Known about the structure:
The complex is a heterodimer.
Chain A: H1 9-14, H2 19-55
Chain B: H1 2-8, H2 12-44, H3 58-85, H4 88-120, H5 128-148, H6 153-167, H7 170-180, E1 190-191, E2 195-196, H8 200-232, H9 237-242
Helix pairs in contact in B: 2-8, 3-4, 3-6, 3-8, 4-5, 4-6, 4-8, 5-6, 5-7
Amino acid sequence: MLNFSFTDFHDFLTMDGHGIYVWTVYLVTFTLIAVSFLIVRRKLNIFKRKLENASE
Amino acid sequence: MLTSFIHRFSSPKSFVEVTALFFPYVMFLGFSCLALGWIWGLAFAPEDAIQGNSYRIIFLHVPASIMAQLIYFFMSICALMHLVWRVKLAAYLIKSAAPVGVLITFIALFSGSIWGIPTWGTWWQWDARITSTLILFIMYLGIITLHSSFSNAEKADRLMSILVVVGVVNIPIIKKSVDWWSTLHQPASISISDGASIDPSMLYPLTISILGMALTMIALGILVSKLYILTREKNKKWVQAYA
């Protein structure tokens, strides 16, 4: 069941001409989700720093 | 009695504290499942006999579309809790879930558009399911806009909840759109009553990807709600002590 579906790495990247669509979708989605996590993390850190400064 | 029970366990403070405990595990499990499901789907699942390799977008598109609807469903339950029992936390969760909904609905629409190019020969078509998902996307944006257009936060919470409840009518329309209107989208391949009509070699990575996407969105939701709750209650004592 777990056999590599492509003959080689180049074949894996091009996917018979469908690679451009498949990889675009995965890359954009990965980036969007990663950036969302980072933005919220950053905002939380900024908020916490402000609180700490205010309480000092 | 039910009301007092709900209110005791729905304090924003305990929500932030309890979810902070779960957060690292949820995020780790979500990322792991997503990585496993996607690598399996991209490299090891067999090629589709009709669509070729472009079908591999399914391992991203289907989880994203399911989550786009589930997040709205979650918001509508929160909206009812807010309207019936006036649970403050429920309104906070709606406000926090909406941007996550925007993100995942955008991903669902975007991945579907790209998938459409090699498969249907077009990136956009006013197909019933695409149109109702676009309406869902606009609903999420509308909910955020409505809430931020009021200076009185409590009033904004109530009106937002009402809008969420009204908009829930769109969810069964999205679900049933493939059966009611025979357009581009194919009917569901996996159903609870009839089982799955797709091969296990594709079903397993798909199921893992759905689970991974769900946990990842829950993790993101926990972070967003923490930020929102802390900001909204920043003048309260517990937030001051939290830092």
